[in-house]
Design brief:
It contains 12 helices and 8 strands. It has an 8-stranded parallel β-barrel with strand order 1-2-3-4-5-6-7-8, surrounded by 6 helices. The relative contact order is 0.15. The chain is globular. β7, α9 and β8 form a beta-alpha-beta unit. The termini are far apart. The chain is of the alpha/beta class. The chain has one domain: TIM Barrel (Alpha-Beta Barrel), CATH 3.20.20.70.
Length: 305
């Protein structure tokens, strides 16, 4: 593809503090989470998913999100979002003065029942009062479609189901849908196939990609997204995370790897890669886990020599 056809700017949604931390064995204190988010706020990132208001019984790592949101040093030009499963979570998010709410469903009945204890239709029904509340408070709502490229229980997912679910959530009032490769099985061909279906009826500006790097395909998949005109991508610093309901699923695409690729393609992210690398290194030490970012590990090794 001609370099001139790539976008000059992209939007990155940093999901490390939510999707990244929710599957880690160590639960961070409020102090550590606040320090993490405040540090990310100084990298040039403009959108941070800072927590979720879900049952602590199911996702204990997110139990202190209310205190986190009220303690972080919010930048006026940044968006701090929270994931919510229902009206109770949405009200908690409103009370915490979040800038944006995210809702989630799945293109797999089995995964939906395992993840939310309800069917796809039942999960969608729960979002009606959430969208109503958000509209009342002028809070934008972003939608996630999990298992868009494959399901740990059902295998391959029909792109038409992803399209139908995306259109449904947009019609309800979501401004954007992030298509999630929850278990990281997507490849360039399957990403192209899915986007060909979804973009046949949905505007490119309303679709984002949320890739996991289980099989090392995430960057290649993002490249397909760029070639198809997408300009919004989710990532987690140091490749944090995974999915607590998808056994064997490794972390998200590392933000450092994505920023490195984009910068060397001449695509602006507004993010300071070296500052971001330091933050990723620090949070990995706090979590006592390996940094999954190849770019970060290389830059850190060069810095030490």
């Amino acid at each position: 593809m001609d370099q001139n056809n790539y976008p000059t700017n992209v939007k990155l949604v940093e999901v490390g503090p939510r999707d990244g931390l929710q599957n880690e064995k160590i639960t961070l204190s409020v102090k550590d989470k606040v320090a993490f988010i405040d540090a990310l706020s100084n990298t040039g990132i403009k959108h941070i998913e800072a927590g979720s208001f879900v049952s602590p019984r199911w996702v204990p790592q997110m139990a202190n999100s209310q205190e986190v949101f009220t303690s972080i040093n919010k930048h006026i030009d940044l968006t701090y979002s929270a994931l919510v499963p229902n009206l109770i979570g949405a009200q908690a998010a409103v009370d915490a003065n979040v800038n944006e709410i995210a809702i989630f469903s799945a293109a797999s009945e089995t995964f939906s029942k395992k993840n939310t204890n309800c069917s796809i239709d039942e999960s969608i029904a729960k979002f009606v009062p959430v969208l109503t509340l958000a509209k009342l408070h002028n809070i934008p709502v972003r939608g996630y479609v999990s298992c868009a490229f494959g399901c740990p229980y059902e295998g391959k997912v029909d792109p038409s189901l992803v399209l139908s679910l995306s259109e449904n959530m947009l019609a309800m009032g979501c401004y954007e849908i992030s298509l999630g490769d929850t278990i990281g099985v997507g490849t360039p061909k399957s990403v192209y196939r899915l986007l060909a279906t979804v973009l046949s009826r949905v505007e490119k500006s309303k679709i984002a990609l949320h890739m996991h790097d289980t099989y090392g395909q995430a960057l290649a998949n993002v490249l397909i997204g760029l070639q198809e005109g997408l300009t919004t991508f989710d990532a987690a610093v140091a490749g944090l995370g995974g999915c607590p309901y998808a056994k064997g699923s490794s972390g998200n695409l590392a933000t450092e790897d994505l920023v490195y690729m984009l910068q060397h393609m001449g695509i602006n992210t507004g993010i300071d890669l070296h500052v971001l690398t330091t933050i990723g290194d620090k949070i990995c030490k706090t979590l006592n886990r390996k940094n999954q970012s190849k770019a970060a590990n290389t830059l850190l090794n060069l810095k030490r020599t």
